[in-house]
Amino acid sequence: MTIEARDLFLFVGAGASRSVPAGLPMFDALRGQILRELRLVGGQSDGSRAGAWARLAPEVFMLALSRGGVEAAPWLNDVLGAGEPNAAHHAVARLAAAGATVWTVNFDDLIERAGGPGLVACAWPAAPADGVTLLKPHGTLGGKLIVDAEAVLHGLPAAWERRLRDDVAGRTVVFLGYRGFDLDFQPIWDDVLAAAGDVLWFDLPDPDADRHKRLLLAGKERAGRLHLRPPVPLPAGAPPGGPNPSWDFVHWCRAEGLADVDQTLVLRLFERPKPVFPRLPGAPYERARPVLQGLLGEITAARRSYRALLARPAHAVHAVRGLVELRLNHGGRPLAWTLTLARLLPPVGRLAEARRFAAAKRLAVLSKTGNYRAVLKGTAGLTAKSLSTLWILRSAALRSSGSLDAAAEAAATAWDRARAERHPVRIAHAAFQRTLALMWADRLDEARACLDQHLDPYAAIAANRWVAWADFVRGGLAVRDGDADAAAAHFRRSQDRFQAEALDDGVASVLVAGLAVLRMGGGNGFEEGLAEVERLQRSRGRQRLRYARNHRFMRHAVLLERAEYARVHTRDADAALRLYRSVAGSPYPLHAAQAHLGLAMLEAEHHHPPERAHTALAMATRIGARRHVRHAQALLAAPGPARAPEFFFC
Predict the structure, then answer these.
(1) Confidence band (pLDDT; 50, 70, 90) for 642?
(2) Residue-wise pLDDT tens digits, 428-449
(3) Around Cβ 193, how many Cβ atoms within 10 Å?
(4) CA geometry: angle at 209 spanning 204 and 213, to 5°?
(5) How far is CA 434 from each of CA 428, 430, 442, 506, rounded to the nearest angstrom?
(6) CB 396, CB 379: distance < 8 Å
(7) How far apart are CA 54 and CA 45, in angstroms?
(8) Are 106 and 17 in contact (CB under 8 A)?
(9) Which of 189, 240, 279, 421 has the fewest C-beta atoms under 10 angstroms from its C-beta?
(10) In sequence order, what are the residues at sequence separation of 6 or more whose Cβ sits closer than 8 angstroms to the Cβ of residue 554?
């Protein structure tokens, strides 16, 4: 069946404007330029610092710049106003003139310039106008732009979503140079495109990106109507080079008889782009540096930068505010004791609000330091309209000392509240708590869906540490799949990110989880891994962040790893018995259940009835630890003594 232009809906992303003569930079290049101008990286971005920001989304950087006093919009106008329309822009413009509907999240006006005076765009914040075939839901150069995390969390305006649904209905959808990560579109794409026909996607080939697209459009994938278009051979006369989605799109337009472009312009697609960057406005950037450092997790460096600003009268208020915020967000037990004094404030007027704020911050510190009973007590009376932070803290406390299913439900409520509050960090934190609770409860399909749909995308607009925690969870899921190599790779990326911001709590979590991976590999390197955990627990330093030194929950997790290693790998039953007994009375029911399970495995191996399996089964059932339940049931159903299979949990 022949496709006609009026049957097409085109959605154009930044990749379409990368090729010459447009030659506009992708965000990786913009971000690198921003960090170089703020002297946060050198001329070459390398090492763990580069890894700390490589997966963070554009919107979170733009928000940080704005909070640091840098007006990014005029700079983007200069950067993205350069270049000329390339062959892809001309093909898109000709399709629009022939009846196709075109949407683009690009700010540049290259499609309009390719189409000439007859192609008029309608751009946000205006409502989508009737009869317009080029729509720009994120704004356009010279007008207001949706560039930061707070703006994108408002979601697609209702009028624009209605127009989107009308425009895709019954049409073939073509994505060009688009990655699919815009958080105002991402939650609705699958539902919106249910009414569309086939979906063709022209983008650079990448296994992870392709997986994301298939998850994003799961309905179309199941129906066999999602087509990730492969690269086509380069045209005659083109210089050697890698895949080029703009060429793939132009080639498809030619093959379908939809539009043609001058061959000279086509060959220019393969020239090497050389973007030019004007300087950021408002230099010097003293105020922006600590804000970006905080985003990247370099908390100690951010404190130094703020302190340096205290001597500058024009920046002193900004510096004090920043130092107070860092203290409140990254303080330990002394901060909790200080915040207790807020109870003395009378609960009236603004003092009541200050009292509530201090109480929430105190509970956050208590959660970080492992005082979960106090957190559960302090969050016992929450309602569906309570602050998302309190629901997040309750979820974390329930996960470690109560029901895993209840923890997942509390995190789901936190997610809804954080979305309503439009707070990117709380959204990512709530998603992390829910994903981890689901994984520990062995509700693995739900955990993977939560990771892909909620944690991964929102971590990228929150901060570096949430990307690290997403990698950590992915490693835990790989352990449950029995894939030691994949688990090790995910944990390594997570550890690199935590080390980049000197967050020892995160590093410790990864190292302890990595002990299970070492056992999966036959135990080689386990003793060295254990020694690394112990060295980290002993280490001290003012340049490092540690909220809970020698946390009992972490200690018990290490003891369980040591016990299972002794039972299976060194066959030291006495050591395993001693270690499991030391954790059997843990105040954390998840660890206590695992310890009783270990004792039951030792009983079975020594020709005794596995009586402790009854205790493990009861405890695990009560808290929803399904992996523990299945293991205990298998022990109780075994016909006689046998070596129990190794137990992995992280």
Answers:
(1) low
(2) 999 999 999 999 999 999 999 9
(3) 23
(4) 105
(5) 10, 6, 12, 18
(6) no
(7) 10
(8) yes
(9) 240
(10) 508, 509, 512, 548
244: CB partners within 8 A, 6+ apart: 19, 231, 234, 269, 270
Residue 229 β-bridge partners: none
Chain segment 80-121, per-residue pLDDT in tens? 888 899 999 999 999 999 999 999 999 999 999 999 999 999
Length of the chain measured in residues: 650
Residues 486-524 as b/e (b if ≥16 CB within 10 A, e otherwise) read bbbbbbebbbbbbbbbbbbbbbbbbbbbbbbbbbbeeee
Q: Which two tokens stand for residue 46?
A: 């390398």
The answer on pLDDT for 44 being more than 50 is: no
Predicted confidence band at 241 (pLDDT cuts at 50, 70, 90)?
Answer: confident
Residue 121 backbone dihedrals phi, psi, to 5 degrees:
-95, 150
Is residue 45 scored above 50 in pLDDT? no
Report the chain's terminal Cα–Cα distance, integer Å: 53
Under 8 Å between Cβ of 226 and 220:
yes
474 touches 451 (CB < 8 A)? yes
**Distance, CA of 149 to CA of 156 (rounded, Å):** 13
Q: Give the range among 58-62, 409-413, 592-596 with minimum mean pLDDT.
A: 58-62
State pLDDT tens for residues 259-280. 999 999 999 999 998 877 888 7
Q: Could you tell me the pLDDT band of residue 22, with boundaries at 50, 70 and 90?
A: very high
What residue type is assigned to position 94 of the chain? Answer: R
Strands 121-123 and 8-12: unpaired
Query: Rounded CA gap, 174 and 92, in Å?
Result: 11
How far is 177 from 16, CA to CA, in rounded Å? Answer: 5
* Maximum pairwise Cα distance, the chain: 87
Angle at 317 between CA 315 and CA 322, to 5 degrees: 95
Q: List, as one string, the DSSP characters of 474-539.
A: HHHHHHHTT-HHHHHHHHHHHHHHHHHTTBHHHHHHHHHHHHHHHHHTTSTTHHHHHHHHHHHHH-
Q: What is the 3-state secondary structure (H, E, C) of 235-251?
A: CCCCCCCCCCHHHHHHH
Element (H, E) at 101: strand 101-104
3-state SS class at 284: coil
For residues 50 and 41, give the distance between their C-alpha atoms in angstroms, rounded to a whole number: 8
Tokens linked to 352: 């009541």
Beta sheet of 172-176, edge-to-edge order = 121-123, 134-136, 101-104, 8-12, 172-176, 199-202, 226-228
Burial (CB count <10 Å: 0-12, 13-18, 19+), residue 50: middle
User: What is the pTM for the complete model shown?
Assistant: 0.82
